[in-house]
Amino acid sequence: MVDLDAVATELYGLRPEEFTAARDAHVAEARRAGERDVAKRIAALRKPTLAVWAANLLARADADQARRLLVLGRELREAHRTLAGEDLRKLSHQQHVVIAAMATEARRLAGGAGQEVSEGVQREVEQILRTVLADPDAAETWARGVLAKAPPQVVGFAELAPVDVPGTAPPPKRRKAEPEAEAAAKADNRAAQAQARARAEADRTDREAELAEEALATAESERARARAALGALDEQIRDLRAQLDRTRQERDRLGAAAKEADRRHRQAAREAKTARAAAGKARNALDAAAGGTPRARH
Predict the structure, then answer these.
(1) How many domains are there within the chain?
(2) 170 contact partners, CB below 8 Å, separation of at least 6
(3) What is each CA distance from 250 to 255, 257, 262, 280, in whole angstroms?
(4) 118 closest CA partner among 293, 110, 40
(5) Is residue 157 part of a domain?
(6) What are the tens digits of pLDDT across the range 17-65?
(7) pLDDT digits 0-9 by tens, 115-153
(8) Is the overall model pTM greater than 0.90, yes or no?
(9) Is residue 212 a part of any domain in this protein?
């Protein structure tokens, strides 16, 4: 039985350029095993971008560091939920420092794996890690090193609170008046609705992309089978042509032998006719010498 989780773990540990061929091999294996549903789900696995692969590589390289980032994410979400401003400022500063360091480490790990990563890709890794902090589901997937795509950004979470600037005191705390709290709640509600719409649209486009990837994988498999069948036919044609050449050579040889046999037969016939005539003459001469009458020729 094909283990889908094990397959995903293997595939998302490969470099992006190795992903498609390995995925197609697992699809073919699942089909041979008669597990068409599993084959379909494997075919739907998306090839990761370079940034997603580097983020997965980071999680796989240091599980403890990945867990610490998840803890930081939980603390940030809790501080946001409780509107703990001082905690938000401290955690936000920690967030920036940690994410910058981890993205740099991801770039180093990628280089060690033989894949150079640009500064632009490093910034993409930073954005993935910021989203991981805000999205628990994406965080768990990333921590296992099987993130298939960059998770959609969570509106407003990455900059929950200003980062403390050295030498600058934080703004004084004050209680929000009720109208301000109500306005903030409405703003949060609008942001949540906008986020829900954006997530729905992202899910729709992701599903379309997954279907396209599945269709592409199916087409690639069919193309591979067609090419294999064509190659087998070409090989068969080559064998038949070689056999035809050998048969023609044998025919030419036998034709030459037949011509030589015909020549020898004609020569033997002439020699036999000459010999029969000579023998007749010899018998007639013998009969004449014996005083008898010559024998009739037969």
Answers:
(1) 1
(2) 86, 89, 164
(3) 8, 10, 18, 44
(4) 110
(5) yes
(6) 999 999 999 999 999 999 999 999 999 999 999 999 999 999 999 999 8
(7) 999 999 999 999 999 998 888 889 999 999 999 999 887
(8) no
(9) no
